Amino acid sequence: MKKVLFAVLIIYLLSAVFSLFYDDGFQLEIINISFLIGMGLAVTGGLMKVVESGFFNGIQYSFKRFRRSTKEGNYISQFDDMDQTKEAHEEYNKNNKFALTNPFLLSGGIAVVVDLLVSYLFYT
């Protein structure tokens, strides 16, 4: 939780510093820049979650299985080293654990939700 709060604090400090370079208005620029930074963190955290869940391992397995389903693909797979195992079902290990996945998702999500609420309250 400390990482999430620290990341949210850094998001708003960076947006305050960057908003000094724009002329549209300090509050509006803080909201816009922190929304963009938060959305970037949320998307990055989401991509990290997809990678560590093994989604792409399933796609790789389905391509290997599709290639072996045809006569030509089965013949070619005998001569290349793309498929070392000859099993019908393979288990891929999920050892791609990223330490910053949840902090990125949470801090980006908090920043996006807070910015949406603040922009709705101030500008409607």
From TrEMBL:
Q: Which residues cross the membrane?
A: 35-59, 104-123
- Residues annotated as domain DUF3899: 31-119
Alphabetic keyword roster:
Membrane, Transmembrane, Transmembrane helix
Record keywords: Membrane included?
yes
Superkingdom per UniProt: Bacteria
Task: Output the InterPro entries linked to this UniProt entry.
Answer: DUF3899
This chain belongs to the protein called: DUF3899 domain-containing protein
Native source organism of the sequence: Bacillus salacetis
